[in-house]
């Protein structure tokens, strides 16, 4: 599945607000608690929190109009998926170009 990379502060703040369904990967300089919101996002999103080894350490299913989620773990990457997927905690993720795969 295709993924758009969010590296700038502006792209991280905007996320999926007022956009069509697409998958986003938020990239941070170091592991940190990444809290998420669903303001102006009108479709469900699965947020996969990844550590520095690209392993899934937390998954949160977020619904529209659920305003805020406080992360339980520090993550280096957060992958927001709008498509069906089979990922689970402990899975390792890899990327080739702008595509994501389960390792």
Task: Write a structural description.
The protein is mainly beta and 103 residues long. The longest helix has 6 residues. Helices cover 6% and strands 45% of the residues. Helix 1 links the parallel strand 1 and strand 2. The radius of gyration is 12 Å and the shape is globular. It has a single domain, classed as Protein of unknown function DUF192 (Jelly Rolls). The relative contact order is 0.28. The strands form three sheets. It has a five-stranded mixed β-sheet. Strands 3-6 form a two-stranded antiparallel sheet. A two-stranded antiparallel ribbon has the order 8-9.
Instruction: Quote the distance from N terminus to C terminus.
Output: 14 Å
CATH-defined architecture: Sandwich
Do you know the CATH topology? Jelly Rolls
Low-confidence stretches: none
Output the helix-strand order: EHEEEEEEEE
Chain-averaged pLDDT: 87
Major beta sheet summary: 5 strands, mixed
Number of strands: 9
Q: What is the beta-strand fraction?
A: 35-45%
Please, how many helices? 1
Kindly report the name of the CATH homologous superfamily: Protein of unknown function DUF192
Rg computed from alpha carbons, rounded to a whole number of angstroms: 12 Å
Q: Can you tell me the CATH class?
A: Mainly Beta
Structural class: mainly beta
Fraction of helical residues: under 10%
The rough form would be described as globular
Number of domains: 1
Strand order of the largest sheet: 1-2-7-4-5
